[in-house]
UniProtKB/TrEMBL annotation:
Keyword field: Membrane, Transmembrane, Transmembrane helix
Gene Ontology MF term list: monoatomic cation transmembrane transporter activity
Gene Ontology CC terms, in alphabetical order: membrane
InterPro entries listed in its UniProt record: Cation_antiport_E
Domain of life: Bacteria
Regions that span the bilayer: 12-37, 49-72
Protein's recorded name: Na+/H+ antiporter subunit E
Amino acid sequence: MVGHLNLILRLAIWFLLTADFSVANIIIGVSIALLLPGRHKTPEALKDWLRVLGEVIVAIPQAYIEALEIIIRPHHREEITMERVKPRRTPGLIFLDIFVITFTPKTIVLKYHEEGWYEVHRVRPRKKT
């Protein structure tokens, strides 16, 4: 089941990149998704995928709220933090984690460290003094 989720993720990325749902593009997308090299074999739980997909759904309204906050009250303070990658993350789940962090306007992942850390840039409102 989880292997199908990887295939769906690859196809979703393909369709987001091409924005074309013609028959030829669907055939090309499925071919590319199947031909891409496989991942190293690590156990993935379906609940991990569902949890991340839930986070993606929650990130959409959060992105709108953060965008309005930045428009109404500009954020001038920046910081770079290191966030730990959750345990047992496969490349597909790491990609979705980075997507969720970067999707919101106040945060962006600058770098993924192989040791298990995300380098995250955040903007924050200025502290009141």
